[in-house]
Design goal:
- The protein is of the alpha+beta class and 164 residues long.
- The protein contains five helices and nine strands; from the N terminus they run H-E-E-E-E-H-H-E-E-E-E-H-H-E.
Length: 164
């Protein structure tokens, strides 16, 4: 049963963010050991200089820059995680999981889609493609900067770590 869930997850959620874990995808490159991988958040935001002059340079270089990430296996992570609900809003896909002690985790897609905020008549058009490209206005790994800022401000926070 768990294997079936994980196969579905791999097909539906190629990019995932756990409340304290970020999963990356696209073309992955093996590192010397089986516990880590060198990978980029996404290569789909590489655009010509003309396109970037027209629509913005943003954080495109950061989206394609490979980082070293620890691999995670949901079957064994934190004693084993079991998915129980799928969801997502206008920008990301999400998956809710529980460990054997009932502690809850949420996976969210790293790569967002802004096009769902458009009216249905504009979805699937150039306008949606342009909106989705604007994901590059945000840094792909900005979530790992939040804990230090939140702690300094005395705000509750999660503590993200990067995983593949």
């Amino acid at each position: 049963m768990m294997q079936h869930h994980l196969q579905c997850i791999k097909r539906i959620f190629p990019f995932l963010v756990l409340s304290f874990c970020i999963s990356l995808s696209t073309t992955a490159q093996q590192v010397n050991d089986s516990t880590r991988i060198l990978n980029s958040a996404s290569l789909k935001y590489e655009k010509s200089k003309g396109y970037q002059r027209r629509w913005g340079k943003h954080y495109r270089a950061e989206w394609k820059t490979p980082i070293l990430a620890q691999k995670i296996n949901l079957d064994t992570a934190f004693g084993g995680l079991t998915p129980y609900a799928m969801g997502g809003g206008r920008q990301s896909k999400s998956l809710r999981l529980r460990d054997k002690n009932g502690r809850e985790y949420v996976l969210r897609s790293l790569d967002k889609t802004f096009g769902k905020a458009l009216p249905p008549v504009a979805q699937g058009t150039f306008a949606e493609a342009l909106m989705n490209d604007q994901v590059t206005i945000s840094h792909p790994y900005s979530s790992v900067t939040i804990p230090a800022l939140a702690k300094a401000a005395g705000i509750l926070y999660t503590d993200p770590e990067i995983y593949y």
